[in-house]
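Weekly modeling sync, notes
Attendees: AB, CL, MP (scribe)

Item 1: holo prediction request
CL wants a bound-state model with zinc ion before deciding which constructs to order. AB pointed out that an apo prediction alone won't tell us much about the pocket. Agreed to run with the ligand included and paste results into these notes for async review.

Input as submitted:
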Amino acid sequence: MSRPTGRLVYMDQPEKLEMREFEVEEPEPGGLLTEIVRANVCGSELHIWQGKHPEVKNGALGHEALCRVLETGDGVETDYAGQPIAEGDIVAPVYYITCQSCPACLDGEFHLCENAYQYWSLSPEEPPHFHGTFATHYYVHPKQYFFKIPDGLDHGIAAGANCALSQVLFGLDRVDLGYGETLLVQGAGGLGLNAIAVANERGAETIVVEGVDQRIERAKAFGADHVIDLTEQETVAARRERVQELTGGVGADVAAELTGVPEAFAEGIHLLREGGRYLGDGERESGSHHRIRPGVADAEEHRNHVSGAVSAVVSTEGARLSRYTRGCIPVR
Ligand SMILES: [Zn+2]
Ligand SMILES: [Zn+2]
């Protein structure tokens, strides 16, 4: 019996997109065939489209999405949290593989799986063709975790669970953001907005540094406690002074760089309290660099804040931190 066909967006070279049509194949054992319910345009997609992404230069596009299960492969009875799964269910699939056999996986560091990107953005010529979510259909491979979305959860919120939200959750877990702490959020793009929401859930106070009006308004709508406008506080010293004012003169407990701008990473260290924790989670372009001054004697005004007690959790590119999910967490 002939199979239906579906369409997908393919990028052969930067800024050149075309629509392609392929037959929709049956899922292999352990996999799923899904149809796309909602696909977000992630910041990474813009980097890929512009030819600036460190790993992906062409192929099928799209990875942040919600999918409806059309067919389950042999052996698939539950999602990766153990919930029963059936045709028609809405799932959030992570977009990488957790192979469970490479050294990183065997050490329990699933986010560093060496085979993670085995299928991501492959050429659509390679079966089963539907490797990206800017498409009518999407294949979930064996060992590609997926999680059922609870009924009643807004699709607009849940569609970011497999990328932006999970990346932020993972990062803020790594720096152990806790109740009553102050989180400095550098950048109110997709990651920054999710960071504000997660901080609110954890009872942390947020200070957002942003310079684009639209993003500032969105940050406030997401519940940011304080905003430092880059167009008003134009220097690092001015921003540091404002952070000091807002934190009783000590600086932020935790800062998260979510812009991908190297200068922001260098700045964030100076906005922390002594012993604060710093998360570098923005997706910086490969090859980008910026001078930082980690030495105690380098800058008198920063002396206490560039001490050895500042711990940094830095990913060479933010996407590596995103290889993690613990299912869909409703964000109010
Ligand atoms: Zn993404
Ligand atoms: Zn692995």
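Recorded for review: Helices lie at 43-50, 103-106, 155-158, 161-174, 190-201, 213-221, 236-246, 262-268.
Action items: CL to compare against the apo run; MP to circulate these notes.
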